[in-house]
């Protein structure tokens, strides 16, 4: 028997990345740009990818399970002709079997024609809305929130699409960054808390919308600004203009975008993701100093904080763990002893840097603790005299309801045992998390505008008990 | 440059085959049986295939572009666990790009739970119904009639599914053979004209529904009877029972099932397809005799009529054309001269049987006439002294609105030129079609209960001018 | 658990088909023609396919496991540029694992440059020759006889390739039809018995070599003649010319090409394959008449003989069994009862033609008898009053050493039990094989020039005891 | 039109990685271990991968084009049963078309049975040896040196395999690290200069041979030692033992393994690859200091040297460029302007770290200079005030003849223009390479035992003018 190894399993997961582009040149094909944009956003979702483009007021699309570079070959891109379009990458939480029907963009026809819609986020009242619509005789073909949103927009067909979206926003609760194309415009929507990121970029010939600014860079576009919470941005032949939802918007950007999800080269709400992580390292060094010889990171996500820790503490930064850069599933034969080897296939300690050293190992977060335990074990085997674990986010104590795949609370190690117990379980010589105050300092200007629910249990909105998409699958 | 050759292109095409099975044994997996049923119905649709099964009141499904044996591998079948389910094969008329989203069974969730629905036929008022529903804010994700039907059923959720289907039948016009599963039952529905075939079969452990009886044979089931026009058959743990739509049903079975679509080993409405074709050959020999040395068929569809022609005329039957049995697309470099060779790749004249002979060549129908022309040319090159073409169906003069892919009237050769002109164009020494009376004799007991619209223009129901699914694709 | 069904397993199997073409036009690409030629020869081998072409004195090739239409896509064909080349289809007897390295054409470099070689046949002294060469330090990368031949040719590099082939023919024993290209010529070779077929064709612009004439038809070439036993045909810019091996050639063409292997539209040694089968049916009717209502065939190979039987006996020919035309592997769940259903998936009795009838069923041969038994059983279930089995070849009593995959003698039913016992085992009401004299009459002009070893044990050459390729795989 | 982007193209390329394992437990399957070993060596070759295992004295193998994780699926690994075996990853220099026939391990049968052979390196007298053998009538099926070696071994079959290898080493010139299995033993061979690395590892149950020690870590084996130059190591049921070639061995390990090829966590000849790179950074800082604000690396290969530069210079290390970690080919539409964007798809400057800063950018080498130029351009666009390029290897002035794919000398920028000119071309504010003395210090203990031919033109052996494998492809 063999088992499949996925080192990333011990991290929280973003569920989606979205991208949209509108070219002023009607003869230009945006499919390559969307491809590059999605490739830059690949870290936000690896299970399926899709692109929809508009040509002569008709939507053409292709979506499949797999990585962007697998789903889209030259042939597919060549056939996707159109001067505007949207794309989506998705990390599925519900298993392979439903990956295809849940792949986005969702393309639907309604009274006003066709739209393609790509969504990042999670609606907490989707179940109630779905029930209401089912009472009216509506059918659903997926378990995507996007289908709920598309149905609401379709029901409001008496008005234009922007007004329909505004009305929809009055009904839906939760997080959402949406990019939508219909026959003649590209629209971007961000929820009233701005919980999920969405930015606007500009190139000589085109406007771009993307989950992260790194995707703007990938297509040669300049950052214009973030979409505002509650804003509906429309891009068409008249240019760019916006309307706002009728709500007061209380900004509550997901802090975990800074901690782990976003690429370090992205800028969210004016704050460099790299810089915030680097700062976290510095603060961690201040809050939890330790007498040690070297600072190492768990690559790649722990690296900026490790560099920051090194800088403030003066302890030299070294490469201590080498990550095999060839992603893709690997297999091992199942047996307890082999499990250990499984992590080493992906991550190998660099003995010559570690041997005889007192090591500070910086990681971005601890979810279940299983991988951390194995890495500490390897470092000791490789001759580390001491291993001091420093985590650049506070303990994860609560589930997320806004688009992050958090495991069941019983699997969150910090929700179940004390920090000293975690330290013992992991086998580290010491363990410290950054403080809640500390993490807020890393995003200083946004300190009152972030959602820290996973650390504090304080969510930007009421979280109803039944708030979970898993209820959708009825008997 | 290269072009793709498809010899079948010069035939009319069925658009779908459906199959359903309900096993009394809850632990039995029906996926293999559905696979074999679809494999037996493969001639009814080669572009996509799908299977949906029900296990513990949940629907699992897999559908893809491709032949049944390509779409389903051991792995897929193993994962499709459930003791009842439905399957579908589809011939797409709308090109490859939309093949995947139009693949069936259609699986939807609605107020009452999930259903999987497979449809063969065509609704002539689908566009009007869709418009009505779009006015109510309904969205559509495909151009399938099945989605219209599923929405209507969902709107009638106040009653049980059989009553909802009955009410739906009061709204839809056109042809439909449906198989549906929900959480606890298998349902079969045939339109009020019985235009598309649907039969009931029985095995010790299971009931079966299928487009043709050859699929019952494939799973070891015995034929019970045809589903009646307007009948809704329900199979569940209480056994089999039916209700009927409220309409008087005027039976109008598609005559082309006998002429070409159905497999010769199928029995439709008590008439053997093989026998009716064989009869057509006999009648053709009677109506249009010719002094000749041998009778040959255009394989495989013309063979039963050729055998019948031989029997009545006393002219010996011979193999005159050998068909390459390895289906699959082939390529040739594009050039007028090579086009000729293209047909020969699939069909080769058997010189030793033909040389110096006066040949009667029996085929089931002529659509565009291009392939017939090439075959006659080959036979002459192979030394045939004369080639007399006998067609076992009357001239095709009209489009079909009930599920058959007929080309534009301008491409139907018989709708544009006289029979002598066709004969000249094709290069045959004589050409005769069976008479309308003749074709009716081949299905004698059903003579007043068949649709011969493609020959006569007399359709069983009013055909509105806009009756075509191509209108669905809005701007 | 599931098992794979292959209805063809109860037939003898040809092991290869070869094709070569030389165009006078240096700018013409022959890859499409080779593709079409191999497609026409697909029945001779379905496990792997390969094409090698020569452009600017360099050989380019592509070969893979799978059917011709799978192995070669537009892309592959486009890349295979060259005005001459060879192709090969192969039926592997040694299992999937080695299919790839044994795929042909074999492309090798030697003293004189590169050659691509495709072989149909079997060398009975390959093992001895291999041993001799291994003693000289030669390595082998496959278990193909072709590699033995290529090595012998390379060892004779002191002379030109035709002389090298002539010298090679003095060393090898067994059957071989070879097509070879080097940098500037196409060569065809047939063994001194002419055991395996090889024909020469001509098109305005090109010469063609092929295992069967049906492949000439597929590329629009006219038959010129068979390659003679022991002949080495060279085609180059000077035209076509030949030399002969130094042996007296005693022609011994494989009789089974007429019985089953070759396509009915092929002409071998001036005899139409269709005609010889048709004759076999007539002779069988004469030798073993029976009072019956209809004659049917086991499709497709038994059909010509069935038509012949019908003609002579006056008993009408009918379609009695419908074969599913979609080839490809199918799966069933393993269980004794299901085994029966397995054959029916591929072959369904046509009840309306059979019911209440006394049936003569004509088949080309019986190998193990298992499929025949199941078919007879189906016919009886479908209502046949009597089933009389007539076989258009004599009983197969011996193994073939010349390129046909015969099962172990213990599995040859006729080698183990008497004809009445076979009849009883199969469940037929009577069973008769054509006589040895009868089968010779079907190829009258060739009567003294055929190998009937599988029926009579008389082989055209001494068959050494160790004559089998299975010995190659050393420990 | 679209072009394919491969950022790695502007680096030198290793051509192969080899791996072998012998388990004492006859029932243990080593395929998974070989898979993990090759996965760890994937950086040494990405075009094809192969595994050969020995079970019951027979060799089974599978090789294909593609990455290790693509070529080997669970199914393949499950079928590869055997308690010893070898594996190979290959970077092809000769284009896709020949990738499959050149894939290794090479499996051949010869007088003494079967062997599987995997080779890293390049023979400089392969052409002459091939010519000699062709004169004897030997054929070749690939352009691999491995086939030359296998033939030589086969010719020496009068003695045992170790002696045959020893004799072979007397004939071949060039670099080679070989792993070989025959029916009962695993053998490792390193050329008399030890130019290509090969290490021995040990696990409780098994011995392991690998190109790099990181592959030992991947399978849980401990490093034993490097194979010695000229050593032939045999591992069989009697344990491990060696013999030596008859030559005096002058060690000349490839310096570029330390500079770029090997993984940083590997130990070669007792020197940590990471450490040597880190030292190179330190020495570079010493030799070519610069007044700057931050040190960044070109990921991932420049990172250890950048950390070393930072440490010695005291200038803080920062992440300045983010590499998209999803490998795989990407496409862009061809146009000059887009070429720029092409690099950015793989590598994005981290503006927040760079803006307004004087940047030292450390890279391992410059080949053509095109990528460096683009990166410097991006950094300036991202606001870098100055960019000082520091290269941790001396200028590459000469081709490699020992297994490294160096471009034509005309494409080596340093071989054509002066360092100041390179600096200007690239657009950097300053440019410095480490000195030859400096690079030797990074491998101090090995200073007299490295090959620095690509920098100095001093090769460990005479390099004949015709020394190139490209000559193999004859007309």
From TrEMBL, chains A, B, C, D:
GO MF terms, alphabetically ordered: 4 iron, 4 sulfur cluster binding; amidophosphoribosyltransferase activity; magnesium ion binding
Residue stretches spanning the membrane: none
Keyword Magnesium part of the UniProt annotation: yes
Any Pfam family: GATase_6
Active-site residues, record numbering mapped to chain: 16
Pathway: Purine metabolism; IMP biosynthesis via de novo pathway; N(1)-(5-phospho-D-ribosyl)glycinamide from 5-phospho-alpha-D-ribose 1-diphosphate: step 1/2
Cofactor(s) named in the record: Mg(2+); [4Fe-4S] cluster
Listed InterPro entries: GATase_2_dom, Ntn_hydrolases_N, PRTase-like, PRTase_dom, PurF, PurF_N
GO terms (BP aspect): 'de novo' IMP biosynthetic process; purine nucleobase biosynthetic process
Role description: Catalyzes the formation of phosphoribosylamine from phosphoribosylpyrophosphate (PRPP) and glutamine.
Protein name as catalogued: Amidophosphoribosyltransferase
């Amino acid at each position: 028997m063999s088992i499949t190894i996925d080192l990333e399993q011990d991290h929280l997961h973003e569920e989606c990345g979205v991208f949209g582009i509108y070219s002023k040149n009607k003869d230009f094909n945006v499919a390559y740009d969307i491809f590059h944009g999605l490739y830059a956003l690949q870290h936000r979702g690896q299970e399926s990818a899709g692109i929809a483009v508009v040509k002569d007021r008709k939507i053409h699309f292709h979506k499949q399970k797999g990585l962007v570079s697998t789903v889209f070959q030259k042939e597919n891109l060549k056939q996707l002709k159109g001067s505007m379009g949207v794309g989506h990458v998705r990390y599925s939480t519900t298993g392979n079997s439903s990956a295809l029907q849940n792949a986005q963009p969702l393309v639907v026809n309604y009274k006003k024609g066709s739209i393609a819609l790509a969504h990042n986020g999670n609606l907490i009242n989707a179940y109630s809305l779905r029930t209401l619509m089912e009472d009216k005789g509506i059918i659903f073909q997926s378990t995507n929130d996007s289908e709920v949103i598309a149905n609401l927009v379709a029901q409001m067909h008496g008005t234009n699409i922007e007004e329909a979206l505004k009305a929809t926003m009055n009904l839906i609760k939760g997080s959402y960054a949406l990019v939508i194309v219909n026959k003649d415009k590209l629209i971007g929507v961000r929820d009233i808390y701005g919980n999920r990121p969405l930015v606007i970029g500009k190139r000589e010939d085109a406007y771009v919308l993307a989950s992260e600014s790194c995707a703007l860079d990938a297509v040669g576009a300049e950052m214009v600004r973030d979409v505002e919470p509650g804003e509906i941005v429309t891009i068409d032949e008249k240019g760019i203009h916006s309307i706002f939802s009728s709500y007061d918007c209380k900004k509550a950007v997901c802090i975990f975008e800074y901690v782990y999800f976003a690429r370090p080269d992205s800028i969210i709400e004016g704050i460099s993701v790299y810089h915030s992580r680097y700062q976290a390292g510095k603060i961690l060094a201040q809050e939890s100093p330790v007498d040690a010889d070297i600072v190492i990171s768990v690559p790649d996500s722990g690296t900026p904080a490790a560099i920051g820790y090194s800088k403030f503490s003066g302890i030299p930064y070294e490469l201590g763990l080498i990550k095999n850069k060839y992603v893709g599933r690997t297999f091992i034969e199942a047996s307890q002893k082999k499990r250990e080897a499984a992590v080493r296939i992906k991550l190998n300690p660099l003995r010559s840097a570690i041997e005889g050293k007192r090591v500070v190992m910086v990681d971005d977060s601890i979810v279940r603790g299983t991988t951390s335990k194995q890495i500490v074990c390897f470092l000791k085997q490789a001759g580390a005299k001491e291993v001091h674990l420093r985590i650049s986010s506070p303990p994860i104590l609560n589930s997320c309801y806004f688009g992050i795949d958090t495991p069941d609370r019983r699997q969150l190690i910090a929700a179940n045992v004390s920090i000293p117990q975690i330290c013992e379980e992991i086998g580290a010589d010491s363990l410290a998390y950054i403080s809640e105050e500390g993490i807020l300092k890393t995003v200083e200007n946004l300190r009152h505008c972030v959602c820290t629910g996973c650390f504090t249990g304080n969510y930007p909105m009421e979280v109803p008990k039944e708030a979970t998409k898993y209820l959708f699958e009825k008997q």
